[in-house]
Description:
By secondary structure, this protein is an alpha/beta fold. It has helices at residues 4-9, 26-34, 43-46, 49-62, 82-92, 108-113, 125-134, 157-167, 181-189, 199-202, 211-219, 242-254, 260-267, 270-275, 300-324, and strands at 15-17, 39-42, 67-72, 96-100, 117-122, 138-142, 172-175, 195-197, 225-228, 236-239. Strand 3 (67-72), helix 5 and strand 4 form a beta-alpha-beta unit. The protein binds flavin mononucleotide.
Amino acid sequence: xxxKITEMFGIEHPIIxxxxxxxxxxxxxxxxxxxxxxxxxxxxxQGTPEKLxxxxxxxxxxxxxxxxxxxxxxxxxxxxxxPGLVQTIVDSxxxxxxxxxxxxxxxxxxxxxxxxxVIHKCTSVRHSVKAQDIGCDAVSVDGxxxxxxxxxxxxxxxILLPRAADELDIPFVASGGMADARSLVASLAMGAEGMNxxxxxIATKEAPVHDNVKQAILxxxxxxxxxxxxxxxxxxxxxxxxxxxxxxEKEKTLGAHIKFEDIxxxxxxxxxxxxxEGEMEAGAWSCGMVAGLVYxxxxxxxxxxxxxxxxxxxxGQRLSNFAAA
Length: 325
Ligand SMILES: Cc1cc2nc3c(=O)[nH]c(=O)nc-3n(C[C@H](O)[C@H](O)[C@H](O)COP(=O)(O)O)c2cc1C
């Protein structure tokens, strides 16, 4: 399939794997890129420029297709070495960066000078327009359904995507709640040039995470995610577990007085425990409502091929039958 996004990133299919903490390692990114999508390494999981350089080099060993690096700007106790991470990306020859969390304007000149395409992930139309104004090449429009940080506006993709289409000139992909060919075709219908998936890619054979995580996504329904950290204006959609329910109790009890320190046990250092050790009750880890649409654990290649084949028949048969009638 050819869209503005496949053309921009030099990929075969308009499917991107969003940056995911402790999931977006070289194995994940390479599997998606080898299947014809755009895989993305998560910069902050590596943390230091040296480790990121090493992870990019590992990915370059596993694929000769384009892949990207995610740079997330979120509130952190100690700020990562962003200048060092950006310089590493530039030096490595990576050609796509997915930014998220905060306005990436400060880093754009350096990235653009190196010929890197920047796709900024936004949860609102106004942030998408801002991304366009500051010179981002594309936007990933992340609806309220999404796993991770949906922002504070709570606008689902059936409204957000067509609104983005009405305001943007640069291409965008639909993100949040995307699982299959229906997601892709609907996104294209609403003006997107492709889709970004997070949660769905974790439930694949190549995802470099503990099998308990994949089984938890498989077992979850669309009712099993929770929004945490809303009182801190750092809302995150996560899969429920006993740690998450304890966190929500604290939010209820402490109300507006809650501070990060109060919930540090349920959110700090949880990712390695979940993703590497499979301790599924450890606390808050991002997961989308789309878990309810995950019914199997295929290889990434099987997943991408299935999406593209079914998209072809959705467009060529189901939709064209309606048009012809
Ligand atoms: C486990 C997990 C970790 C994530 N970590 C990050 C991250 O570090 N940076 C980021 O920009 N987005 C992160 N995301 C968001 C994804 O890139 C993507 O936008 C989101 O998963 C899309 O929604 P979906 O899960 O419904 O597909 C994460 C998502 C998941 C599920």
